[in-house]
Design goal:
It is built from eight helices and seven strands, in the order βαβαβαβαβαβαααβ. By secondary structure, the protein is an alpha/beta fold. The chain has one domain (8-239): NAD(P)-binding Rossmann-like Domain (Rossmann fold, 3-Layer(aba) Sandwich), CATH 3.40.50. Helix 3 runs parallel beside helix 4 (104-132). The protein starts with 7 loop residues before the first strand and ends in a 7-residue tail after the last strand.
Length: 252
């Protein structure tokens, strides 16, 4: 099970963090991997590591908030591979504030980066999946797309990830007739470039221990198994699923 030889997997936001980890997960299963992000130099460093698994690796500079950049990236992938089998929408960022203090700029930045970008990338790549009558779309949302929180005011992030959750259901319903599945993963607290400064504080660590039943943060690579399952041939009847990988945070 879970043999990805001959499959082409595109991962956005793959220059670091969870995106880079999932790209490695797919490469280790035999997939040819396309990694996309704005920082081409970082992408190329990740690509060198992925090549050790033996598959083809292509690094493509892409700003997921820019329609022309996204469409150009999709064209590049099709010219190189002729298809895309798996799309992982992982790119994202956020500006944190509560509903009273958040500015228009902070709101727009977060919604554009975390929600509108998922639409743009999915639009660009799904048409090629439709042509081949095959596709696996995996959107990286967040457990914060399912619940609120009392540790950090970040209203736009909650809204954007909640949007990704229901965008996933809508796309699942729309594209099922083309043999394309669309599912979302909702990570809990994982240490990445964007989160490490917050997570390592004593206050947040104490909050995590009180709210996460497993009593720890997610470790590197612990998201990969969920992505590999949802991206596999074996998950052909799984679509519209919202899968938390959060140590039990949303279970209590």
């Amino acid at each position: 099970m879970f043999d990805f030889k001959g499959r082409v997997c595109v991962v956005s936001g793959a220059s670091s963090g969870l995106g880079a980890q999932m790209a490695e997960g797919f490469a280790a299963q035999g997939a040819d991997v396309v990694i996309m992000a704005r920082r081409l130099e970082r992408l190329e460093q990740v690509a060198e590591k992925l090549k050790s698994f033996g598959g083809k690796v292509l690094a493509v500079r892409c700003d997921v908030t820019d329609t022309e950049s996204v469409n150009a990236a999709a064209d590049t992938v099709i010219k190189e591979f002729g298809k895309v089998d798996i799309l992982v929408n992982c790119a994202g960022s956020a500006k944190n504030a509560g509903v009273v203090d958040m500015t228009d700029e902070e709101w727009d930045f977060t919604i554009d980066t975390d929600l509108t970008s998922v639409f743009k990338v999915t639009r660009a790549f799904s048409k090629y999946m439709i042509e081949k009558k095959y596709g696996r779309i995996i959107n990286i949302a967040s457990m914060y797309g399912l619940v609120g929180n009392t540790a950090l005011d970040t209203v736009a992030y909650h809204a954007s990830k909640g949007g990704v959750v229901n965008f996933t259901r809508a796309v699942a319903a729309e594209l099922a007739k083309h043999n394309i599945t669309c599912n979302a993963i909702c990570p809990g607290y994982f240490a990445t470039e964007l989160t490490i400064d917050t997570l390592k504080t004593e206050q947040f660590t104490n909050y995590m221990k009180a709210t996460v039943p497993m009593g720890r943060y997610g470790n590197e690579g612990e998201l990969n198994s969920a992505a590999i399952f949802l991206g596999s041939d074996e998950a052909s009847y799984v679509t519209g699923v919202i899968l938390p990988v959060d140590g039990g945070y949303t279970a209590v």
